[in-house]
Amino acid sequence: MAQSSQNPPFQQEKVIIPNKYGNKLVGILHEAGTKEIVILCHGLRASKEDIIMTQLAAALENAGISSFRFDFTGNGESEGSFEFGIYWREVDDIHSVVQHFHEANRRVLAIIGHSKGASAVLLYASKYHDVKTVANLSGRYDLKTGLENLLGKNFLERIRKEGFIELKTKSGSVDYRITEESLKDRLNINMQETCLHIGKECRFLTIHGDADTIIPVGDAFEFAKILPNHKLHIVEGADHVYTDHLAELASIVVDFMKETFAQGQV
Questions:
Q1: Does residue 6 form part of some domain?
Q2: What is the pTM of this model?
Q3: Quick one: 41 and 98 in the same domain?
Q4: How would you classify residue 237: left for phi > 0, otherwise alpha for psi between -120 and 50, otherwise beta?
Q5: Which of 92, 95, 131, 258 has the fewest C-beta atoms under 10 angstroms from its C-beta?
């Protein structure tokens, strides 16, 4: 059946945004007819095509909310080399995206990040105060944890001796290299201090699965303790990437965005 002019079909458009370092960031704009827009930020070694990003964009579309999912520098289709760490450079990427839509006379309703992307949006909210709603999906509270699982035992000793650690794929080829400098970039981030610099008017949603073996669910409760304007939702049985729980994740996010619209937090 033909779509009426009063209910136009959803549109997707590839958008290229230059960041402050001259790299082109590539993203997909999901137009749902709203001036307001939600920005979606992927996690480590992921991209805008990550199933969490695409499912959230689809759910927001169906709720009549426009969104933009993009690749951070060195990921997916975006220019630049992938580097471990560089949290603040990813904050710069988010800022470039936010500025692009502000200049296009769009209102950024919220920024949503998963895993490492959640860390980036938290850091963004601590530095800039131009977006009043943030969603933290399975973000890490203590960035000093989780490294031994990723890098192996004695990783600090090895990286100081060799200057780097190479992470390999299952086939044995080098996936990426972690330098001492990039490791320090992560270790120097204090998320407690970061949260204290976030304005009280900023609404926060934290979602975390209680079966997450990558980032323990306890991290979600730490965010709940320190962020004053905060809502916590634990998804029972969900792992780090919400396998078998994507619909529930999307429903929680969409409901929170609808609340944000209703409260005029734009």
A1: no
A2: 0.91
A3: yes
A4: left
A5: 258
